[in-house]
């Protein structure tokens, strides 16, 4: 396909993107590729994926949906590395981000949902231009984020812009979030600060975080990093 056609397609193709907390029953890339998805029992992971696609189609008229559990080949280290470094941009380019809060049943449960404590979901909260929350039963709870850094300005431009400034304040946003693998403390913040470092699982949390700080400083990081 000619490069010009590819460029136009990327600019006009609309897709939704899923933000969620992983469970032990997620649909994997291999499940989709091998075609055994249709033979699988209706696990919680499969139901979540199907509900996500149904809402994308029925509420927004969008046929294409992206979910990290089944759209990334995690057996390929190069694809995993590229995906991690591209994640913020993928969420930013989506038409709408659908957030599934698996532990939220009522509006009162919202602030206690574990989704708000995970490291990776910070950029999934900040990056999209349009975001909508759903409770565990896929009932819409919140349609707009009531914080200045998360609101949409005119013409679809978000108030939040990724970059190497306000480092201390942005680090504070991430301070109480948790990740499964220590290195993800650093990797999950690349998009927030608009920097890119190669992923190297096994290097340890401290080394990964030092490389992140170095990348932020090299990108012209603000002096506020010293306050943090």
From TrEMBL:
<protein>
    <recommendedName>
        <fullName>Heterokaryon incompatibility domain-containing protein</fullName>
    </recommendedName>
</protein>
<dbReference type="Pfam" id="PF06985">
    <property type="entry name" value="HET"/>
</dbReference>
<feature type="domain" description="Heterokaryon incompatibility">
    <location>
        <begin position="15"/>
        <end position="105"/>
    </location>
</feature>
<dbReference type="InterPro" id="IPR010730">
    <property type="entry name" value="HET"/>
</dbReference>
